[in-house]
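Recall that a protein's primary structure is simply its ordered list of amino acids. Everything else, from secondary elements to tertiary packing, is in principle encoded there. The following example makes that idea concrete.
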Amino acid sequence: MDAFLRRLGLRSPIVQAPMAGVSTPAMAAAVSNAGALGSLGVGAADAEGARRMIRDTRALTDRAFNVNLFCHTPAAADPAREARWLAWLAPRFRELGAEPPRALREICRSFVDDPAMLAMLLEERPAVVSFHFGLPPAPVISALKRAGSALLATATSLREARASEAAGVDAIVAQGSEAGGHRGAFDPADDDELGTFALVRLLARSTQLPVIAAGGIMDGAGIAAALALGAQAAQLGTAFVACPESAIDEGFRRALLDPAARTTVTASISGRKARGLRNRFTALDGDAARPPVPDYPIAYDAGKALHAAAKARGEHGYGAWWAGQAAPVARALPAAELVRELEAELDAALRGLAERLDTRGR
């Protein structure tokens, strides 16, 4: 087993993706107790909310788990652009018997500018801390390493991987374009949109750090393929969304488990590109009159308000249903049971590959 996995005491090369608003302490603990790496997405929480999530998880497991932060460039408020956005969304609110917000706000703070979150992490000392949308300043990385946390960073390109390596992180999450949720690109305007397999192979050949493959991986065969390409582990998000431990609502659950589920990439919901299930909100991308989207996460304030208004009327089609391209393969299994299934499928895939190679060598 790779030294990085041994450091964390992992039996399986499986990471449950940190999905803000979806993954829960119960999910993270179940995955970690099963021998994989569970994760918490705290990017949308404040420091005390994140602390509660960490402590709730520790009450359920004594094993390592990952705490994920958002490192986006803080939003630039533009009242005129935000007013145009709200005016464009207003007819959708009124269809639901609601009014749009009077103004929009930055609903979550970037970790690059959140000293309270850093202070909390240095006190709680989680075994793993990971970064999405970029990297925090060098002194923050140094402080977390001194506190004993292993550090992961999402990279969508070789440029980002090399920047992460130079910054001193311990492993890279190679996020392919198939992945559900927000693209982790440091600069949304400079995204190569590489697929998982191309990205994993590129990073495995060109960096010295362990690579964790992410994007479109839903079963043991996918994990085996990622390992064959040079990854040390695979991160699965959509595979865990339907678990009973997740925080999704029933509208999302029904849509995810629909065999005809399809995904698309949209920036309309949050202000940054993200892959999710097609619904009434993503369909708005086709409106030729759509004005420029406000910065992330200011646009998300409007997206969440529209979803809340819709749910109050029994309409679930305006949710942020983040999911990857292989969503139709999702299984509604308890998280620990899913880890065991993935391990069994991985073992079977590796045995099958070994047998095929042995046959060819005869």
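The domain at 3-74+109-247+332-361 is CATH 3.20.20.70 (TIM Barrel). The longest strand covers residues 65-70.
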